[in-house]
C-alpha cells in the first residue's frame, strides 16, 4: 500500500506491506517495491490499456458551493418545530444565501463521474484504476483469481476466489 502526505507538489510517499490474512498487521516497507512505479503509471493512466479511444476526461473549474441550511434546515426550526414560522426570518434568509467559490476537478469516463476533488489536489488512480490487461487476473503465486462481476445498474463487485487443483 502507498500513502502520500504533505503538499501535492512534493508529497511524502510511504509504503506498507499488508498481509492478506484476516487480522494481520500492517508493516512499514521502507522503499517502494520494484514494481510500484509501473503499477501506479498503469493504474493512473488516462487511457484504457490497449484502447486509445477510451480516455478519462478532466474537467477543472470554479463552482459556487452553497452551504447555508436555509429555511428547510433543521437548525432553522428554533421557534417552530415544523419550521413554518421561520421561513422569512432574516437570519434564515442570510443562511440560505451563504456560498463560496470552490475549485473542482472532475474525472469522467463515458460521461460518468469517476472521481471528484473539491479544494484539493486531484490524484489520478486514487478512486479508480484500469483493470488488468486481461480478465480475469491471477495472483502472482497462482493460488487466487479475481474478476469484476457486474451487478444491477452501474454496480460492480470484485470477486476473489481460491484456486485449488484436484489430486
Tell me the helix content.
under 10%
Provide the β-strand percentage band: 35-45%
Computed Rg: 23 Å
- Give the CA-based shape: extended
| Contiguous uncertain segments of 5+ residues | 71-79
Distance between the ends: 36 Å
Provide the spatial order of strands within the biggest beta sheet.
1-2-3
**Number of separate domains:** 3
Order of helices and strands: EEEHEEEHEEEEE
Number of beta strands: 11
Question: What number is the mean pLDDT?
Answer: 74
The biggest sheet amounts to:
3 strands, antiparallel
Secondary structural class? mainly beta
What is the count of DSSP helices, taking H or I runs of 4+ residues?
A: 2
Summarize the structure.
The protein is mostly beta strands and 167 residues long. The chain contains two helices and eleven strands.
Task: Provide a descriptive summary of the structure in words.
The protein has 167 residues and is mainly beta. It has 3 domains: 1-33, no CATH class; 45-122, no CATH class; 131-167. Helix content is 9%, strand content 39%. The strands form 4 sheets. The protein has a 3-stranded antiparallel β-sheet with strand order 1-2-3, with no helix packed on it. The chain has a 3-stranded antiparallel β-sheet with strand order 6-7-8, with no helix packed on it. The protein is extended and about 75 Å long. Residues 71-79 have low confidence and may be disordered.
Amino acid at each position: 500500500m502507498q500513502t502520500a502526505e504533505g503538499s501535492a507538489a512534493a508529497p511524502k510517499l510511504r509504503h506498507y506491506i499488508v498481509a492478506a490474512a484476516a487480522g494481520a498487521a500492517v508493516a512499514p516497507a521502507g522503499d517502494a517495491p520494484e514494481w510500484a512505479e509501473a503499477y501506479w503509471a498503469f493504474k493512473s493512466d488516462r487511457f484504457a490499456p490497449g484502447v486509445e479511444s477510451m480516455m478519462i476526461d478532466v474537467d477543472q473549474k470554479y463552482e459556487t458551493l452553497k452551504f447555508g441550511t436555509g429555511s428547510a434546515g433543521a437548525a432553522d426550526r428554533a421557534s417552530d418545530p415544523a419550521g413554518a414560522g421561520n421561513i422569512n426570518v432574516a437570519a434564515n434568509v442570510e443562511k440560505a444565501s451563504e456560498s463560496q467559490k470552490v475549485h473542482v476537478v472532475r474525472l469522467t469516463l463515458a460521461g460518468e463521474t469517476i472521481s471528484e476533488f473539491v479544494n484539493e489536489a486531484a490524484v489520478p488512480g486514487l478512486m479508480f484504476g484500469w483493470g488488468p490487461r486481461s480478465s480475469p487476473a491471477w495472483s502472482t503465486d497462482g493460488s487466487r483469481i479475481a474478476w469484476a462481476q457486474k451487478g444491477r445498474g452501474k454496480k460492480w463487485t470484485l470477486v476473489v476466489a481460491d484456486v485449488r487443483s484436484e489430486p
